[in-house]
Amino acid sequence: MFELVDATKRYGPLVALAPLSLTITAGERLALMGPSGSGKTTLLHLLAGVIQPDEGRVAIAGRSTETLRPGRDLARLVGVMAQGFDLVPSLAVVHNVLAGRLGEWGIGRSLLSLVFPRELPLAQAALNRVGVGTKLYERTARLSGGEQQRVALARLLVQQPRAILADEPVSSVDPARAEDLLTLLVEVAAEDGRTLIASMHAVPLALRYFSRVIALRHGHLVFDRATTAVTEADLTALYDLRQEEARDVR
Amino acid sequence: MTSAKASPAPLGGGPPAGHVPIRGRGLLTLLLLGALTWSLTTVPWGEPLVHPGGLTVLGEMLVAALHPTVSAEFLGIALAASWRTVAYATAGVSLAILLAFPAGVLASGVLVRHPVLRALTSGASRALLGVLRAIHELVWALLFVAAIGLSPFAAVLALALPYAGILGRILAEILEDVPPGPLAALRAAGAREWQVLLYGRLPQAFPNMVSYALYRYECGIRSATIMSFVGLGGLGYQIQISLDDLRFREVWTFVYCLVVLVVLVDLWSGVIRRRLLA
Amino acid sequence: MSANPLKVEARGDRLALDAGRTPVASSEPGLPQRSLALRASGWLLVALVVASWVFVVSEPSAHVGDLISRETLDHGRDFLQQLAGVGEARPAYRDPGQWRQAARLAYRTLAMSVLAIGFATIGTLLTVMAGARPVLDEGRPWPRTLLFGLTRAAWIFSRAVPELVWALLIIFVFSPGILAGALALGLHNFGVLGRLCAEVVENLDRRPIRAVRSAGAGRGQTLLYAVLPSALPAFLTFVLYRWEVVIRTTIVVGFVSAAGLGREFRLALSFFHYSDVTLLVLVYVLLVFAVDATSVGLRRLAR
Q1: Within a domain: residue C54?
Q2: In Å, how far is C85's CA from the nearest CA of chain B?
Q3: Structural domain boundaries, residue C286
Q4: Which residues in C lie closer than 8 A to residue B35 (C-beta atoms)?
Q5: A residues 141-170 near B, CB within 8 Å?
Q6: What part of C 173-202 touches B (C-beta under 8 Å)?
Q7: Could you tell me what percent of chain A has a pLDDT over 70?
């Protein structure tokens, strides 16, 4: 599904991602881990085709991201879920969900739909699936953080991408809701055999819900293995940075 | 937009076909469109809206816009007129600040502790400021010219009064919005309200106040320009004279001078604002 | 320009600035000395103020003494008495017929202001995307850059020229009346609104916009589903705020475009019908207050 060959990304003198090669097959559930500033988001953006590598190449479903301009083709392949900020607060929920169909719609239909929503059953079904079916005409700004995440997921259901990329999907949700949301995310991805890639801050959640873990630090790969094979030592190696820092302060 | 707070859609069932409840912003959209339509109906569309030959004049004007008069002698006149406009604006706005200061402080009610007394003084100052700014500067100018004759003071006062009304209200708002922490500290140190004003509120309000006054100064230049309508000199006066003689090329020279003035003041105040608020 | 304009609730005139305002706590006492630019600006301002006052006072027609002379005081008292209609059998403001006439004029004045702000809004909506710095970090071909520059220049130009001067120019082409007045008011406010709304667009949260784009939306669709819905509430606030300004200005544009309250006001002054002037100013102030109240109500409805 995804293939990286020596993909590198720099921002000025800062190496956001050192040359990285990896293959992600369709249907995998993959968690990206690492301290903040480790390159998780950069990697996610590369996989989403939002940014291009400075060196090496990134391919989605066999096509280089350079040839995939933002628009319908890319939207059919990958759907992106950012940290809960990807909805337009002043729009009704239904329009935010149907925004997932924009790649398939022409401008006339898009305009009409803002007044008389098109393909309503689709939006309704997606909202029902994620458990906020009653909020169809609510203004998005009035929803709680968790509900907004669900609406963002409903948009992805409508968009029907082959892979879902989620950037810290549960960071802005309280811990009790986080599990519900992750369960939902994993189920939704599994139903149609979609690939799921998420950057995760909470280690236990990452280990419980994902099948493979890629760990980064300072833009370098620390380890890449199946969740079941991750050891305590791996995690210490990944996060001992914090202890070093703590020592420095002392 | 059509979005609005809505009745819950039936769970899982067929949604209400194409039904979007109209409330709040939807209603507002309709109201605004209705208002525009109504205002269009008040235009007498049946009568000739463009002068016979109006389009020819328009063409002449546009051609003249590309060839403004630029002789040295004429530019001297334009420069003098620009200076006069700037001088009226500067004098007017500076007087407005002097007037706005006490009125704004009173209107904010921060000096008076007693609730009834505060309601009275602040209410009265607010009403006064409201009337001052409700009346357009040119209307003030007409009234002043009628009262004290054709004197530059008429222009300065006519500018100063409505601008004092606006600046006073803004000063009152800014004074009220000042972060309360430092004020409480001053009070704890035994400062009385007028000392709190001097040492706490005004220093904190200063950058925003300067920044707003500068924005008003830009408006003041435009306002000073139109003082010509009551017979006072400046760029507007020159524009009128040149228009009366249909010398469009000269008109454009003056208009360009005005644009340059406004842009200069805008840029300058932008620089000050950025440094003050950074 | 950092602060989020959406955060700024309607506060009348202060809006114009708030788009670029940071929270008040910016002046910490005892902070490093002001930059050179600030000190130079301060001295320049002082010099300007002094020079301006010297210029104003030294003009031949300016007689400081006159301001408080016996003659001026008498004249002022007469003027006030005439405004109050002293000595008239029936001052205009006590004549119901005159009130009805003034109400009709107020109605036309109101129509002119709505038409003007309508023109300005339509113009702004048509140009705001061309004149705002791009919200999507995608390539910008040179025609787009050219269009950007042209739009900005048009805004600056129409904003710099006061309504009244626009009106003077416009009545050479259009017949005096509501339309001419509304065009003049609309032209000036087009420039003002364009600049304010472009700032709104530039300060929008980019994340929802990028998200809609990554969901496969084209440029036009992104505009419809992300940019405009986010920006419209703030646009509306600015439009209503400018409407409050426009209603104050309609009266003076009426002097030139011969429409509404402004024309009657000018006529009454020319013919020394001072109690008519009082009535017209009363009606005008009432109209201004009514528009302010309506604008506040409409903003509440938008929330």
Answers
A1: no
A2: 15
A3: 95-302
A4: 114, 118
A5: 142
A6: 173-175, 177-179, 182
A7: 94
Instruction: Tell me how many residue pairs between chain A and chain C have CB atoms under 8 A apart.
Output: 87
Find the helix packing angle between B248-277 and B235-244, rounded to 10°.
160
Structure tokens, A54: 């400075």
**Scanning every residue of chain B, which has its alpha carbon at the shortest distance from the alpha carbon of A126?**
B12
* Ranges of chain A with pLDDT below 70: 70, 83-85, 240-250
pTM of the model: 0.76
C207-231: average pLDDT? 84
Q: What is the pLDDT of residues A135-159, one digit of tens each?
A: 888 888 888 878 888 888 888 888 8
Q: Which of C207, C216, C233 sits opposite A102 (nearest CB)?
A: C216
B94 close to C (CB below 8 A) = yes
User: Among B85, B236, B93, B82, which residue's Cα sits nearest to residue B157?
Assistant: B93
Is residue C114 assigned to a domain?
yes
Position B163 in a domain: yes
Provide the domain limits for residue A39: 2-249
* Containing structural domain, residue B112: 87-234
Give the count of domains, chain C. 1
CATH number, domain with residue A75: 3.40.50.300
Residue B13 within any structural domain of the chain: no
CA distance C136 to C73: 64
Residue B224 lies in a domain: yes
B22 touches chain C (CB under 8 A): no
Find out whether B273 and B211 touch, Cβ atoms under 8 Å.
yes
Asked if residue C291 lies in contact with residue C113, where contact means CB atoms within 8 angstroms, the answer is yes
DSSP string, chain A: -EEEEEEEEEETTEEEEEEEEEEE-TT-EEEEE-STTSSHHHHHHHHHTSS--SEEEEEETTEEGGG--TTHHHHHHEEEE-SS--S-TTSBHHHHHHGGGTTTS-HHHHHHHHHS-SSHHHHHHHHHHTT-GGGTTSBGGGS-HHHHHHHHHHHHHHH--SEEEEESTTTTS-HHHHHHHHHHHHHHHHHTT-EEEEE-S-HHHHHHH-SEEEEEETTEEEEEEEGGG--HHHHHHHHHHHHHHHHHH-
Question: What is this model's ipTM?
Answer: 0.78
Tokens of A1: 């599904």
Domain count, chain B: 1
Cα separation of C162 and B78, whole Å? 17
How far apart are the C-alpha atoms of B156 and C52, rounded to whole Å? 10
Answer whether residue C231 is part of any domain. Answer: yes
Structural domains of chain A, count:
1
Each residue's pLDDT tens digit, A179-217: 888 888 888 888 888 889 988 887 888 888 888 888 888
CATH number at residue C210: 1.10.3720.10
